[in-house]
Amino acid sequence: MNDFHEQLMLRLQHQREKNLYRQRRVIDSPQQVELLSDGKALLSFCSNDYLGLANHPDIARAMKRAIDRWGIGSGAAHLITGHTAAHHALEEELAEWLGRERALLFSTGYMANIGAISALMGRGDQLFEDRLNHASLIDGGLASAAAFHRYQHADTEMLDEQLRAFESGNCMVISDGVFSMDGDIAPLPQLATCCEQHDALLMIDDAHGIGVLGEQGRGCCSGYTQQQVPVLMATLGKAFGVFGAFVAGSETLIETLIQDARSWVYTTAPPAAMAEALREALKIVIRDEWRREQLRLLISRFRQGAGQLGLPLMPSETPIQPLVAGDADRALRWSHALEQRGILVTAIRPPTVPQGGARLRITFSATHTAVHVDQLLDALDQIQRRDH
Ligand SMILES: *Cc1c(COP(=O)(O)O)cnc(C)c1O
Questions:
Q1: Where does 198-288 have alpha helices with state H?
Q2: Residue 280: closest CA among 94, 97, 58, 34
Q3: Which of 78, 83, 149, 208 is labelled catalytic?
Q4: How far apart are CA 98 and CA 80, in angstroms?
Q5: What's the topology of domain 21-51+289-387?
């Protein structure tokens, strides 16, 4: 027992020495671009609340009304007594919006990925994932008994070669839609063609594209049919500003998940009030084109300004605009220096990103203003000058 504790302490010590130790920050305000933490006001550029809905009054009102209507807890799993008309309506509205036959609500994106992948893939099956896929997709692949192959980031030629080796048997290809730490968009046309040619099932995780990209915010798969992208997954805690996730696809796909996705079957349904909040959020996502337009303006202002300052931008057209620092202590130093200037951007370090790829993951929200972007650029300019 003591021995074990000693080992844990050594491990923590090691993480501290390598500048990889992680700590939580306590926030004392609602989730918005101007945050309060430790009695200090901070301008935040690191949440995934891309559309600025996490503290939207209409969604808050919908949730309060729903508590009066439905109470608090769901009391049981969806297959027992937890599945209310509110959950059901949300699923139907999501499916209709995305042009899919059905959608299934999960508690979190992490659970949706673990549940869907391990329900669809088993022993003897072949799974192919982009090397930079989100941890939940990797973990889902490892949790399934399928053989697990990883291809170089966005390298559909390599994927094509890997798939060639398996002309028989079930193959599934999984990719982030928008890569969560880099902000680039997956090569969807090539992925769809490649999967069609090799008769492989394509799954896209659009956690960072849904609400932000595409017509009516349908995400990076907007315009792709259910045949082209048969398994479409997205989260509802980011651009939707609430919590949860879903998988959308055919009747057969969803019925299979209802039978076999263990992280959906063996867990309590989320509160009905959450589903009602999400229904209100969906209306706003569809309606408020100005939020997506504002994001485009902020992104282009930032990229133009950062380019003029010679900052190490990555090729991203999404609200995720990372600045790669390289080693972890440099990323931490940048992050601390920003915080001293009243700006919050947490440093992202390995193992969340590859070794040598520590970075500031800057993200924009529709509730940022041009003045906010200029403040950020100004602070980055000062830090860059001092770092040389
Ligand atoms: C955030 C994220 C998830 C997990 O979603 P949660 O609802 O936060 O559990 C899954 N996939 C990707 C690509 C993500 O960025």
A1: 251-260, 262-265, 272-287
A2: 58
A3: 208
A4: 28
A5: Aspartate Aminotransferase, domain 1 (3.90.1150)
* Tokens, residue 286: 């569809």
| Contacts with 47 (C-beta within 8 Å, 6 or more apart), sequence order | 31, 33, 54, 363, 365
Is pLDDT of 313 > 80?
A: yes
Distance between alpha carbon 284 and the CA centroid of its chain, in Å? 19
Confidence band for 388, pLDDT divided at 50, 70 and 90: low
Among 49, 106, 134, 318, the mutation site with the greatest number of ligand 1 atoms within 8 A of its Cβ is: 134
Instruction: Please give the pLDDT value at position 169.
Output: 83
Side chain identity at residue 157, one-letter code? E
Residue 1 has pLDDT above 70, yes or no: no
180 is catalytic: yes
Residue 365, C-beta contacts closer than 8 angstroms, at least 6 positions apart:
33, 47, 49, 50, 51, 52, 295, 319
163, 154, 140, 25: CA torsion to nearest 10? 170
Token output for 362: 């800057």
CATH of domain 57-287: 3.40.640.10
All structural domains of the chain with their residue ranges: 21-51+289-387, 57-287
* 364 Cα: distance to centroid of ligand 1 (angstroms): 17
Euclidean distance between CA atoms 143 and 20, whole angstroms: 26
Q: Compute and round to an integer the Cα radius of gyration of the chain.
A: 21
Active-site residue, 107 included = no
